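Expect sequence, tokenised fold; for instance:
***
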Amino acid sequence: MLLDRRALLLAGLALPTLARAQTTWKPERPVRLILPFTPGTSMDPVARLAQESLKDTLGQSVVVENIAGAATVIAGAETLKAPPDGHTMLMIANSFAANITLRTRTADWQRAFAPIVQATVVPHVLVAAPSLKTDWAGFMKRLRESGGSMTYGSPGIGTSPHLGAEHFLRLAGGKAVHAPYNGTAQLFVDLYAGRIDFALSNLPDVVQPIEEGKLIALAVTADQRVRELPKVPTFAELGLPDLLSDSWFGIMIRRDTPAPAREALERAWLTALSRPDVRERLQALSFTVLARPGAEFEKVIDRYVATYATIIKENGITVQQ
């Protein structure tokens, strides 16, 4: 009996040490961070500004790999092919949530991937063609009385500005014709000229045109007014607090990766995003640093997946598979 008690005591004393050992994970080789877009896109600085801090925390280099194509599907598939050992991460955007409904190849990715951290977000600005010569009240009146004759542009079918615009129309009780573009270059040319009426666009893309009078800024999707456009109200101020329209970036990993590795990567990212130099440089690029842990990020993804699914199905939105 004494021996049994002593064994139990020793086992109890060993548990905290064992728990610490199980949660202490370090990569054994450089860690891959796969980006699903070409080099030079807005996702790049988020990854590269965090690299040094991630290396300091993890004790291994983090290698950024740009694997573009098939609307982020190729990069996701490459991540899923890698062993679930914590050495391969995937950076995602809103398209991850949209693709759950839009694409058959990615329908189960919400179960296949686990969130590590939601890193940043860029708000969208509702901008109108200068030829409309309108304010918010005038724009909303025109939208609701136009019978669906107004036209809005987006950088492509299924992008966050496209789905955000459809969500806006749903909440606002208006209709408009969608004009999809291949990117934003020609979209802005046509918006300046009044060939389309409005768009939801990333904040950094529209600040200068707004200041130059080429666009009318009507509302911003941020939680509070942004320093770049302090006179532009938020959608919440204007009575549409539930609008989901922005461009966020986050980190994912295979869901079957062991918990100690996932937790270590989450800590490393939260540490990187808390560094003043990293935050300042990202904020200078108009990013809002979120640094949301994986559990919170999962709730965000769930909300976007559900909202996007409703919008996609209601509007019959399809993409080439």
User: Anything to note?
Assistant: The mean pLDDT is 93. Residues 84 and 257 are 5 Å apart (CA to CA). The first helix runs from residue 2 to 23. The chain has two domains: 29-122+246-315, 123-220.
